[in-house]
Amino acid sequence: MRLRQYTLRNLSVPLLLILSAWACAFYITIIREINEETDESLTNHKMLIIKAALADSTLLTDHVDILTQYYIHEIPPAKADLSKDVFFDSTRVVPLEMISIPVRGLRTCFRTSDDKYYELTIITSILEKEDMVRATVIGLAILYFSLVFCILLVIHLVFRKSLHPLYVLFDWLKKYRLGKTNIPLRNETKIEEFHILNEAIEDVVRRNTKLYNMQKQFVENAAHELQTPLAICINKLELMSENPDCTERQLSDIASLHQTLSGIVKMNKSLLLLSRIENRQFPETSRIEMNKLVSGIQENLDEMYEHKHITVTVKNSAQLFTTMNESLASTLLTNLIKNAYIHNCQDGIIQITITAHTLTVANSSNAPRLNASTLFDRYERQSRHKESTGLGLAIVKSIAALYEIQVEYNHDKQLHEFKLTFK
Amino acid sequence: MKILIVEDENSLRDIMVCSLEKERYVVESAADYQGALLKINDYDYDCIVLDIMLPGGNGLLLLEELKKMKKKDSVIIVSAKDSLEDKVKGLDLGADDYLTKPFHLAELNARIKCVLRRKQQDGEMDITIANITMYPDRHAIYIDGNQLILNRKEFDLLYYFVTNPDRLISKTALAESVWGDYIDQADNFDFIYSQVKNLRKKLKAAGALPEIKAVYGFGYKMIYEER
């Protein structure tokens, strides 16, 4: 949800409540005011009528006109209560239009000089409350929507103008890639908060870049410092082995040393690869057709493991394209497919299935179901293979994590299955 | 054939010199940037084995200097940096090959031979040992003039043996050179054993004189006894 929509949503609900409450209060106040005014005018009217009636007894009759009507009739003294004015709401039928309209009335009693008691009822028409309510609601709705619209417009304009530096910053951050050459942030602003934000982000990015470079350098130095002594050891052993005076026993010792050293070299390389992947030192990406890559790797491995007589079936039900670093894609698939060969049994099978979004490698094996929770950890060896560095699946996992590829392990019908799901 | 080795690590330099001298090359060496620059200025070499990280300057600068002098020396870069950028940069600057430390001496030897051959023979490159003649560019092999059909891996294996005759080659070195990156987790080198067995069978059937001899526990050696 954009900040704009969010703000508007948060404003619209309270606004509706406030306007409704205000409308109720407005309505009640107006009605009360009208009643008070009407009552007052009725009281005035009463005084005038009574005064006139007392002076001239011919006026002690009913009177009806458009605005005001009053009725006078005599009542027994016992019923008369001189001290009380009674106000009441009622309706009156307009004879011509055949509709009833609301009216307000005043009922009171008075005594003439000849000790006769009369009851006076004055009726006056008032505003129609229902019309009033309807008008209020319509007015309110119009006010509400125009307010929301105006607020939307204002928010839009204000956000576009005052939050412009924020959006510039977002765009820049979106384009920023650690380890690649980035354009410097150009975001001039007079607003202090944004200025601080700009500086903070630039500072973080600068520090990050520095750390990244330091780590990259460390990894490279570590490689250099270790590779050279290893090269010396390995090459010295090779020179020794070429000495014709070497006995078979010595040669076999040299061979075992040589193999151990080669193991260290491989482990060093694998660890370097892991740190490079985790440091995101493979920024270049390209669009890769996995089907083609799989068939190439599979052909190579097939030749290598010819002696195991493994039957491989590759099922390409769709073309699978993905965007990632080419050498990492190759490393990922090689590690996965090679595992299927290494941990296979003699005369076993491998099934590779490729769909538009998934790649599955399943292999037969004598090993039971593997522990999926630790399978992808470093140095997690679930087999007896002494040549394995124990890093193959850790590399698979870290490459997969880098490109948000899902890796799953399943064991079904005696087949160990690794499934990659691409976004 | 004159070869210059530029490497700052004394032991490694001595080993390389010793190994290449066995191949009857004239080998000279330099330990730093200045020393190497002097030697390059004064002499012509057929091949220069160049370490990138040198005291006194970057090996790539040396390569640039070499190209400025318009010298035709072949250059093989040897580096501990296994980074693609350096590799691409080195080859762009005109290096003929790139080798990552640690390497096997047999591999270095094979690469040097390849570079030298490419330099000497402008046309087709062939390599001959006894009655075996190989044409690596078009993947052809002849024994006594008769073509022998080998699969790709067998061909690569034989090529490695032919470029390193009489040299004991470890199984690791063989595997790495023929299978490259695929090797780093392989089990027991059984596949080397089975591939070499097939190759030997085919060579013998075709009547090749050189023989691939197994050296127990270590690896193999191609020997050719002149009769």
Keywords:
heterodimer, A: 423 residues, alpha+beta, Heat Shock Protein 90, 5-stranded antiparallel beta sheet, 5-stranded mixed beta sheet, 53% helix, B: 227 residues, alpha/beta, Rossmann fold, Arc Repressor Mutant, subunit A, 2 domains, 5-stranded parallel beta sheet, 4-stranded antiparallel beta sheet, 8 helices, 14 strands, 42% helix, 24% strand, elongated
Description:
The complex is a heterodimer of chains A (423) and B (227). By secondary structure, chain A is an alpha+beta fold. Chain A has three domains: 147 residues, no CATH class; 85 residues; 136 residues, Heat Shock Protein 90 (2-Layer Sandwich), CATH 3.30.565. Chain A contains eight helices and twelve strands. In chain A, strand 11 and strand 12 form a beta hairpin. Chain B is an alpha/beta fold and 227 residues long. Chain B has two domains: 119 residues, 3-Layer(aba) Sandwich (Rossmann fold); 97 residues, Arc Repressor Mutant, subunit A. In chain B, 42% of the residues lie in helices and 24% in strands. In chain B, strands 2-1-3-6-7 form a five-stranded parallel β-sheet, sandwiched between helices. Chain B has a four-stranded antiparallel β-sheet with strand order 8-9-10-11, covered by helices on one side. In chain B, helix 4 links the parallel strand 6 and strand 7. In chain B, helix 6 packs across helix 8. Chain B is elongated, with a radius of gyration of 19 Å. The chains are: A alpha+beta (423), B alpha/beta (227). Chains A and B meet through helix 4, helix 5, helix 6 and helix 7 of A and helix 1, helix 7 and helix 8 of B.
